[in-house]
Structures are given as structure tokens and as C-alpha cells.
Design goal:
By secondary structure, this protein is mainly alpha-helical. It has helices spanning 12-19, 25-33, 39-45, 51-63, 86-105, 112-122, and strands spanning 67-72, 79-84. Strand 1 (67-72) and strand 2 (79-84) form a beta hairpin. Helix 2 (25-33) packs across helix 5 and helix 5 packs across helix 6. The relative contact order is 0.11.
């Protein structure tokens, strides 16, 4: 296959990396996939993230069509639950494959506490 020119703006790999760019988006997708899908639960499971950054990351994932908000209006205060869209579920599968790759080739660089989580979720 040959190209007369290459346009990085339309490259699928660049679009993929933009969707998961930053250190929080893949983690948030993982949490939502595993029913840690309310703002307060995410704050508990990711203690190093600020409320502002969590809000920005969730809005970004939503605007990219990877998650959607389900507002339960019957309760006060309003309860928001996040869910993966079909596009988000497919992206999670790709991220899971990257994690499996890392577990195979770079596992020695992962802290022991994280290895336990990854081993239970990504055992080959």
C-alpha cells in the first residue's frame, strides 16, 4: 500500500490516543465498566484526582460518545450514574488488550498492589 501523502489529522491511531489521552480517562472507563459509576464512588477510588479534573474528564468522555449520564430524578439530591456506550465498551476492549500486553511485557514495573488488581482482572 502506498500513499501520496499522509494526513495525521485523519489517522485512526491518533484519534484512538486522543480518546484515551491523559492518565485518568482509561481509569475512569475501567471504573465505570466495573459499576463504580457515580461521581462520589470515583472520587473514593481515585483519591489523587481533583473534583474539577474528574468533572472535566467525565465531560470529555461524554462529549466523545464513550459514556452517557443517567440522571435519577426521583431522588433528592439528584443522583447521576455513568454508563459506557457501545463505542465506550469497544474502546475498553482495546484498552484491556493494551493492559494485557503490559502485563506480559512490563509487569515488573507495576507496584505489587496494582499487580493484584490486574492479575484478578486480566489473568491470561
Amino acid at each position: 500500500m502506498s500513499f501520496s501523502h499522509f494526513d495525521a489529522e485523519h489517522c485512526f491511531i491518533n484519534k484512538f490516543t486522543t480518546l484515551i489521552a491523559g492518565k485518568w480517562k482509561p481509569i475512569l472507563l475501567y471504573l465505570i465498566q466495573n459499576d463504580i459509576n457515580r461521581f462520589s464512588l470515583m472520587m473514593e477510588h481515585v483519591p489523587n484526582i481533583s473534583r474539577k479534573v474528574l468533572t472535566e474528564q467525565l465531560r470529555g468522555l461524554e462529549s466523545d460518545g464513550l459514556i452517557y449520564r443517567d440522571e435519577l430524578k426521583s431522588k433528592a439530591p439528584k443522583v447521576v450514574i455513568y454508563h459506557l456506550t457501545e463505542k465506550g465498551e469497544k474502546l475498553r476492549q482495546l484498552v484491556d488488550e493494551i493492559i494485557r500486553w503490559g502485563m506480559t511485557y512490563d509487569k515488573e514495573e507495576v507496584p505489587d498492589e496494582m499487580k493484584k488488581i490486574l492479575d484478578s482482572d486480566f489473568a491470561q
